[in-house]
Design a protein that fits this description.
Elements: H1 2-21, H2 33-37, H3 43-46, E1 52-55, H4 62-70, H5 77-87, E2 105-108, H6 111-119
């Protein structure tokens, strides 16, 4: 019985050492989207608050819509699909990108709206950004 308790710490230390040897490095890079994306010709890339609307016509696919509006923005197509479907549940049957409903209007989200969606922050689709609230004032001497 005592032998089990002596071998247990040895086993646990060996197991954690093996995991440590196979661990991959985790690198965090700072990304300044204003400098890289502002050089692009797409309106979504130039203005992070720009959003648009699109009325679905019969025979149209989500990929064609994304290509039409977001081409040249540098945004990932698969991520855009997820964001558009999440914000436009009324336009997709069973949240499936292959089952868009014709004559429905899609909200094409801005970069800032996609960021809020990714972080789980609630927002209204038609909310305007009020920059007066975002200013930082310093009082003192």
């Amino acid at each position: 019985m005592l032998r089990k308790y002596i071998l247990l710490p040895f086993f646990l230390s060996t197991f954690s050492l093996v995991n440590y040897l196979y661990a991959e490095p985790f690198v965090v890079l700072q990304y300044n989207n204003a400098s890289e994306l502002s050089d692009r010709s797409n309106e979504f890339a130039q203005n992070p608050d720009y959003s648009d609307k699109h009325k679905i016509v019969p025979g149209e696919s989500l990929n064609l819509i994304i290509e039409k509006y977001y081409d040249g923005s540098g945004l990932n197509t698969y991520f855009l699909q997820l964001a558009i479907v999440s914000l436009n549940k009324h336009a997709f049957r069973n949240r499936n990108i292959n089952y868009m409903i014709a004559d429905k209007t899609l909200h094409l989200p801005s970069i800032n709206q996609i960021t809020k969606l990714m972080k789980g922050i609630d927002f209204k689709l038609d909310e305007e950004v009020n920059y007066e609230q975002n200013k930082i004032y310093y009082f003192g001497g």
